[in-house]
Amino acid sequence: MSDSPAVTAHNPELRHHFADMAQQKDAASLGMWLFLVTEIMFFGGMFCAYLIYRLQHFNDFAAASQSLDITLGAINTAVLIGSSLTVVLAVNAAQRGKRKLLVFYLVATIVLGCTFLGIKAKEYTQKFEEHHVPGPTFHFIPTRMAGHPEQPPIDERHAEMFFSLYFVMTGMHAVHMIIGVGLFSVLTFQSWKGRYSAGYYTPIENAGLYWHFVDVVWIYLFPLLYLISLHG
Amino acid sequence: MSEHSTSVGFYVMIFIILLLLTATTVGAAFINLGPLNPVIALGIATTKALLVVLFFMHVKGASEKMIQVVIMMGIFFLLLLLGLALADYGTRLWS
User: Fold this and answer.
1) What residues 12-51 of chain A have any CB closer than 8 A to a CB of chain B?
2) Which domain holds residue B56?
3) Which of A198, A199, B22, B61 is the most buried (most CB within 10 A)?
4) Do B2 and B45 share a domain, yes or no?
5) What is the CATH number of domain A18-139+153-226?
6) Domain coordinates in residue numbering, chain A
7) Shared domain check, B68 and B45
8) Closest-approach residue (CA) in chain A for B3
């Protein structure tokens, strides 16, 4: 730490209340992680509600879950993991001071993020058409019940509860994605203008941390919402 | 400071492992393993989350140990929330 101030003291991005760039970067990272911990608790509350109701009404939740499109869900998981890769490569390009490569990976991330949101919109449209959206027009007939008369009948109200949780959890996740796409749009513009270099790329890194967190939330949402009791 | 030496190939390798784990979790969901199904699904999800947090979010080899303390605190309080709430609802036999 003691040898860096002489080198970095004149970096125009160094705020006057920090001793050097390394200290400024550590403070920004720590702040970002504290924010992500509050996000863990925000999503944690919803996961908690989901787990309690799933354990209480397992058959209804499994039947409702089977109406979701696993193919679209799996494609979206792959798209989101791909966008995490482009983010980490963008940070890598920023560390090496490659401006054009950084802009390319940021644009790729925005494209993948929008692809995810597009597929999500398609899934939501299907749910609206099937009247699986909670509300006065909600109606649910389980698809796999026909050949299984021995299964207990499905309680429509509990299926509605599954869809309420599905829309709240994926909806809040999608809101985070939209915010992330907005963040990366600003960062792409600033990177194109040459704001970030190998000596200063903290905003890219912190936006990346945010994006990876949103990815981790989806990594848990996918199996919990789409993959309940699929075997016949 | 090890993050500067991380190569593009390493990130691509983690990406491929994440895709393979996604395929595994979809495949495992179609096999009847009884009570093991959700355990495997959550186990694979946690493995994927760990890979993302350790290597994409650069927590492994982070220069700032305080970040690791903050993350452990976050996980601790999340488990406290889930654990105590489920212990409550799971033992309400009279309702």
Assistant:
1) 26, 29-30, 33-34, 36-37, 40-41, 44-45, 47-48, 51
2) 1-62
3) B22
4) yes
5) 1.20.120.80
6) 18-139+153-226
7) no
8) A92
Residues B44 and B13 in one domain: yes
Is A212 in contact with B66 (Cβ distance < 8 A)?
no
Comparing CB atoms, the residue among B15, B25, B81 nearest residue A44 is: B81
Domains in chain B, number: 2
* Interchain CB distance below 8 Å, B70 and A89: no
State both tokens at A219. 């990594």
Please judge whether A95 and B63 are an interchain contact, meaning their C-beta atoms are less than 8 angstroms apart. Answer: no
CB-based contact A112:A137 (threshold 8 Å): no
- The interface predicted TM-score of the complex, written ipTM, equals 0.91
Nearest-Cα distance to chain B for A40, in Å, is 7
The set of residues, in sequence order, having a beta carbon less than 8 Å from that of B5 and lying 6+ positions away, is none
pLDDT of A185 reads 98
State whether B57 and B74 are in the same domain. Answer: no
Give just the sign of the alpha carbon dihedral A173, A175, A178, A184. negative
* Per-residue pLDDT tens over the stretch A122-145: 999 999 999 999 999 998 888 755
The better pLDDT of the pair A148, A43 is held by A43
Smallest CA-to-CA distance from A45 within A166, A169, A131 is with A169
Q: What is the pLDDT of residues A13-42, one digit of tens each?
A: 888 889 888 889 999 999 999 999 999 999
pLDDT of residue B54: 93
Do B17 and B44 fall within a single domain? yes
Q: B31 vs chain A: nearest CA distance in angstroms?
A: 6
Identify which of B30, B31, B64 has the shortest CB distance to residue A29.
B64
What whole-number distance in Å separates Cα of residue A136 and Cα of residue A184? 38
Same domain, B6 and B41: yes
Tell me how far apart the alpha carbons of residues B36 and B21 are, in angstroms, rounded to a whole number. 17
The vertex-B63 CA angle with B61 and B67, nearest 5°, equals 90
